[in-house]
Specification:
The chain is mostly beta strands and about 120 residues long. It has one domain: predicted glycosyltransferase like domains (Thrombin, subunit H, Beta Barrel). It is about 10% helix and about 50% strand. It is built from one helix and eight strands, in the order E-H-E-E-E-E-E-E-E. The longest helix has 12 residues. The protein is globular. The protein starts with 6 loop residues before the first strand and ends with a strand.
Length: about 120
Amino acid sequence: MNAELEEFIAISEEAIIGLLSERYGCTDEQYRDSRRRQPRWPFDAPVELWLRDEAGGEEYVLGTALNLSPHGVAVALDFPLDLEQRLPLAIHQPEASLHGEATVRHCREVEDGYHIGLEFVF
């Protein structure tokens, strides 16, 4: 990714690995956690989610990424999301905005809101 251009990039495993490699020099070998299928790296970024309202329209909300892996992102929100809900999202960075879709796989209440686990849909 070119740090001088703001561009929109479709979310893919390759795009996420490229972002993590460029920003942190991360590789799969640098991080192992036996509880996880994929390595995850701390990642603080705005995440825009589009939610369907009861009238069938969409509204967008902003959350904050907590960590990122090649297959998903954990997001902090002020409210819960339904498990298995599929929604469009964008992860905004100065050099690029990654956009695509994800499915809610995890939702846990924490002291200051909710931690939402989103799995990317490729």
